[in-house]
Specification:
By secondary structure, the chain is of the alpha/beta class. It contains six helices and 15 strands. The protein has a seven-stranded mixed β-sheet, covered by helices on one side. Helix 3 links the parallel strand 4 and strand 5. The longest helix is centred in the middle third of the chain and has 19 residues. The radius of gyration is 18 Å and the shape is globular. The N and C termini lie far apart (43 Å). It comes from Cercopithifilaria johnstoni. Keywords: Glycoprotein. Pfam families: Metallophos, Metallophos_C. This is Purple acid phosphatase.
Amino acid sequence: MTKIVFMENDACQDEGQFGDQFGRQIEPIAAYVPYMVVVGNHEQAYNFSHYVNRYTMPNSEHNFFYSFDLGAAHFIAISTEFYYFTEYGTVQIANQWKWLIDDLKRASANRDKYPWIITMGHRPMYCSNYDSDDCTKYESRVRSGIPGTHRYGLEKLFYTYGVDLEFWAHEHSYERMWPLYNRTVYNGTKEPYIDPPAPIHIISGSAGCQEYTDPFISKPSPWSAFRSSNYGFGRLHIFNETHLYYEQVSASKDEAEDSFWLIKQRHGPYTSEHRKKLKKFGTYVP
């Protein structure tokens, strides 16, 4: 039974007409199941007003960043868009950053009850798509922070507090990555998803788009474990405090085209032992 639906957005463009249409289509589900959204770049028109006013997310007046607990997991939703409108200042980034640190501290102290920490954001840190999006660059803003100063980079922060799984969208494709931190890929063991020394990144941005799907570079990036340009959606199953299962479903075939188990006997901040493990069995991508 579906307990909750996540939408990493791009659903409010065309002066709200697209949002109206999509809202009517999703209504039979959203009327009965919690429907959680994350702001995307296509919501930027009119100062994101369509996004702000269409939804009501928990403990948030604006829906840009919020968190909640469900089952054995603590979910955190953030706005990556703040990083791409710095010409208007960085106050919003600073506000989110302060809130995020406070939330991660509380989540870390509460891991006996909610061991998994899972984040959701629109623009990814890494990708292997054939375009000029920020995730194709050596230092993406979301990962490394504001260009020049490197302030507010999320990768190190998420690593410090032991985030387990990171969901992204923006790229009109699906990509599952090996455990990954600071451009170091952990894929030198037989079971890289058992007690990994770094978070797992999932890009699931191909639910459907009139621009069609995004192409990939011909040779997969070292961090790419599986990728697909098929339209699809993901199913996340959190069985208990140690076992999590994810599958990506092809919309045209109505069957899973990729899946993996993430197994962790211990949750918490990544330590020096994790870094040693990452260095020993990992590969740095220059």
